[in-house]
Design brief:
Layout (H helix, E strand, L loop, with lengths): L1 E8 L3 H6 L7 H13 L2 E7 L3 E3 L14 E10 L1
Antiparallel strand pairs: 1-4, 2-4, 3-4
Length: 78
């Protein structure tokens, strides 16, 4: 497996790292799953410090808002 640093919304951390989707609604879970598949992220291990971006669509093409807080996630990828 290879390692990669992939940026995604901060509030996805619990689902990506711990598989805890309790803070997400069904649409957000679908976005996370699509992100994981699109990036071949098999296992998300950790995330860095959160930071703000005005262009969330750079990281999540189907984001429904312009800006947001993101993190750089350390992932095992295929």
């Amino acid at each position: 497996m290879k390692m990669a640093c992939i940026t995604a919304p901060e509030h996805w951390a619990s689902y990506l790292i711990n598989n805890d989707s309790s803070s997400l609604d069904a649409d957000e879970i679908a976005q996370v799953d699509a992100w994981r598949k699109r990036n071949d992220a098999v296992n998300v291990l950790d995330c860095g410090e959160p930071y703000f971006t005005w262009n969330l669509a750079l990281y999540v093409p189907d984001a429904n808002r312009a800006g947001g807080t993101v993190c750089d996630y350390q992932c095992e990828v295929q």
